[in-house]
Amino acid sequence: MKKLLYFFALVTVGAWAQTPKATNKLFGVDINPTNTPTATGKIRCASTEYETSLQQKYSTRATEEAFENWMSAKIRERQATGNRSAQSTNTVYTIPVVVHVIHNGDAYGTGENITDEQVLSQIQVLNQDFRRMLNTPGYNTNAVGADTEIEFCLAQTDPDGNETTGIHRVNLGTASWGENAIETTMKPQTQWNPDLYFNIWVCRFGGDLFGVLGYAQFPDNSTLGGLDTIGGEADTDGVVIGYQYFGSQDIYPEGTYDSEFFNGRTSTHEIGHCFGLRHIWGDTSSCTVNATDSLKDYCPDTPAASTATSGCPVGKNSCPNAPGNDMIENYMDYTDDGCMNIFTQDQKERMLVVLENSPRRSSLRTSTVCQAPQGFEIDGSLNFNAPTDTCTSAPTLSLTLQNKGTQTINSAVIEYAVDGVTQPNVTYNGNLTTTQTAQIQLPTSAFTSGTHTVTFNISSINQTADQNSNNDNKSGSFTIPEFYNTTAVTIKIQRDEFGSETAWSLVNDAGQTLASGGNYSDTNSLPALITQTVNVPANTCYTFTITDAFGDGICCDYGDGFYEISTADNQIIFAGSTFESSASYSFGVGALSTSDFTKTTVKLYPNPASDILYLENPSGTAIENVTVYNTLGQEVRYLKNQSASKVAISVANLPVGMYIIQFTTEGVTQTAKFARK
Predict the structure, then answer these.
(1) Mean pLDDT over each residue of the chain, to the nearest integer
(2) H/E element holding 71?
(3) Exposure string over 270-302, b if 16+ CB within 10 A, otherwise e
(4) What percent of the chain has pLDDT over 90?
(5) Which of 40-67 are b and which e, b meaning 16 or more Cβ less than 10 Å from the residue's Cβ?
(6) Could you give the C-alpha distances from 599 to 443, 593, 603, in angstroms and in order?
(7) Does the active-site annotation cover 349?
(8) Contact indicator for 31, 49 with CB cutoff of 8 Å
(9) Under a CB-based contact definition with an 8 Å cutoff, are residues 434 and 406 in contact?
(10) What's the distance, CA 3 to chain centroid?
(11) Residue 17 belongs to what H/E stretch?
(12) Distance CA 241, CA 265 (A)
């Protein structure tokens, strides 16, 4: 996040003070010149810049021209069938909503962990605005004002088929959220199926999003009519709103609100983008329009405008040679919340086209999740239990089976795979009554360092099919840290100039802090390098974490900061420079040393090995029947009819990682671990 240092001078005496300002980039692209900050320095909407970044990231994502060609064709189809939205169609589309309230442990009703009542007030505002509801702030008497015939409801059924309020509270342990963390972590980890739920995330913005009110993902076109599908990720689809701009102070005064934007129109605006609407000035400063309004918002019934509008001015006309004043009351302008009250007939037409044709929009119309859950007689639910003993090559993996049905579960067959490799089925036999749970342990396996995925499914319950498949197919993941043979680590941190935002720690797996630092003083130049060596006992794991309170990391606008952790012999364990609110990395010490690998009477060397691994029996007794397995228990090498005291095994073609070797000597079968480096 760019930060501005204001210099205050009194005669010849000056003092430095820091304050944040809006960055000149959002999502890695230049801010649109027409996206002017409000009087308080806030940016009303980052959707245009977000869409530009998606088009740069996904080569198949439609350009504005391609999308508008698709849109205009669909509008002509609606008009040809007489389904013109200027009149009421008497068909109301109800959109099921889940609101993800993302916080970092704040008490209910504190900070970004806003109350249910504040969330409900926002749903009320959406319905007033989209339905042009009489005797509410969403009503208008404008001749082109439209009841869009779109309503919103909070979901009553969650993705597992359970009852829900539609308000999904998640503690992700992060104080504020920047662009990358939202897109790669927050959204994918918390999103509900976007084909069935309209996802809204409410969080505290940080980093480059500091001072932004919200942003939305513009809709895809469809593959109907031979059109190519466009790029874009389903697991990022939805709207993200700063918590203080969500909800209405007029409806629920006890909530937590911004002093300027407090009537819930940020969500109305961003959902307009999700349903295919553009800013009324078309994100250009030109007043040029043609019959189809192709250089503006593609809605001829919104008068030409060349700039966004702040406040609520009377009689603004940024294009005096075109008819009509700027429609500052339109929800797709940047005016104050209390000034907005219009969607037009042409805007309604665009939104209905999107809801009837766009992927992850059209399916919302037929979603049934706003209804209470259906009860089932035979219904089992599975969840993965993240292992707590990952400081080992063979963590304990287990599932939780819960009876969601009315019939007692006496048996269940569970299919599962590890890293895409199908494993033998596991079974449950017992007496599981309604709502009761049972822990099902999976067979123990050895794993290499890195992230591993477990997928699982209920094949049958009581020798018959589960009646509710929504909660049968799931997945989970866990990470085995990399291990290093060292007695100490050296931590190097180059801070940027805003040391008051930076803190770091090194913690062992017992939760003890071995080293830490911060917060520091701010400086006007790059501060001295921090270097600290920490002794690290073997056979345990450690986690290094560095945080930035502002959410813009320590690189690179205010000094090329970086962090680095290395072993006693200068092997780099972890290094980085750019992050947002935090960066964290876990590693182990000693567990993969040669002495820990070799648990047999036979020598195993070199370990780790890159080309040839040798098995040697110092007693001279023959080594026989050598088999090498990967961590999934699959045989990858087999040397039969061996009868020598020293055996050479080629490992050059094996993937890097950990392996188990099994062999026989003097009639005794032994096993050992080795690593392929």
Answers:
(1) 86
(2) helix 64-80
(3) bbbbbbbbbbbbbbbeebebeeebeebbbbbbb
(4) 52
(5) eebbbbbbbbbbbbbbeeeeebbebeeb
(6) 22, 12, 9
(7) no
(8) yes
(9) yes
(10) 26
(11) strand 13-20
(12) 11
CA distance 519 to 248: 36
pLDDT in tens, 474-515: 888 988 888 888 889 999 999 999 999 999 999 998 889 999
With residue 349 as reference, give the H or E element that holds it: helix 345-357
Strand residue runs (E) in 183-314: 198-203, 214-216, 239-242
State whether the Cα torsion 116-120-121-123 is positive or negative: positive
> Which phi and psi (to 5°) does residue 120 adopt?
-60, -35
- Measuring CA to CA, how many Å separate 608 from each of 485, 497, 656? 11, 42, 10
- To which H or E segment does residue 93 belong? strand 93-103
Q: How is residue 469 annotated by DSSP?
A: G
Residues 6+ apart with CB under 8 A from 74: 353, 356, 357
Query: What tokens appear for 250 in the block?
Result: 């007029």
Please name every residue paired with 675 in a beta bridge, in sequence order, or none if there are none. 658
Task: Judge contact between 294 and 68, C-beta under 8 A.
Answer: yes
Single-letter residue type at 206? G
**What CA–CA distance (Å, rounded) separates 399 from 342?**
51
Element (H, E) at 515: strand 513-518
Q: Which pLDDT tens digit goes with each residue over 194-236?
A: 999 999 999 999 988 999 999 999 998 764 433 334 445 788 9
- How far is 5 from 277, CA to CA, in rounded Å? 38
Residues in the chain: 677
Distance CA 102, CA 169 (A): 6
Residue with tokens 């990682």: 657
Cis amide prior to 519 (ω within 30 degrees): yes
What backbone torsions phi and psi does residue 516 show, to the nearest 5 degrees? -160, 165
Tokens linked to 612:
């040839």
Amino acid at 242: G
Please state, in angstroms and rounded to a whole number, the distance separating the CA atoms of residues 663 and 627. 6
The separation between CA 588 and the C-alpha centre of its own chain, rounded to angstroms, equals: 27
Catalytic residue among 179, 270, 580, 624: 270
**Opening angle at CA 237, ends 235 and 241, nearest 5:** 120
Kindly report the backbone phi and psi dihedral angles of residue 617, in degrees, each rounded to the nearest multiple of 5, phi listed first: -100, 110
Domains of the chain plus CATH, in order, are 3-284+328-366 (3.40.390.10), 380-480 (2.60.40.10), 484-589 (2.60.60), 595-676 (2.60.40.3080)
Maximum C-alpha span of the chain: 100
Q: How far apart are the first and last CA of the chain?
A: 40
- Count of CB atoms situated within 10 Å of the CB of 649: 20
CB 53 within 8 A of CB 28: yes
The first and second tokens of residue 524, run together, are 């006007």
Whether the pLDDT of residue 642 is over 80: the answer is: no
